[in-house]
Amino acid sequence: MKLIHTTALALLLGLFSGCSMLKASRYIKSGSVSQSAFRTDLPFEMRFGFIVLKVMIHGKEYSFLLDTGAPK
Predict the structure, then answer these.
(1) Which of 12, 30, 36, 66 could make an SS bond with 51 (beta carbons 3.0 to 4.6 A apart)?
(2) pLDDT for 15-64, tens place per residue?
(3) What residues does 54 pair with on adjacent strands?
(4) What are the residue ranges spanned by the domains of the chain?
(5) How far apart are alpha carbons 26 and 20 in whole angstroms?
(6) Cα(16)–Cα(2) distance, rounded to whole angstroms?
């Protein structure tokens, strides 16, 4: 009996997560953008294999690590 409950729960969770993924992919495919020029060149330096950007904020220079969120 416990196996039936576990299987039913797994099936329901799979259905709910699958449906939300389908909705998310539909929204991603249906977006629009008004800007036409997307390219911007930024000077950067590599430190220990990471991309570091120099940024000026109120006259002070800061170093920021660029994190794309993409897995290696």
Answers:
(1) 66
(2) 566 555 566 666 667 777 788 887 888 889 999 989 999 999 999 999 99
(3) 63
(4) 2-30+42-65
(5) 10
(6) 21
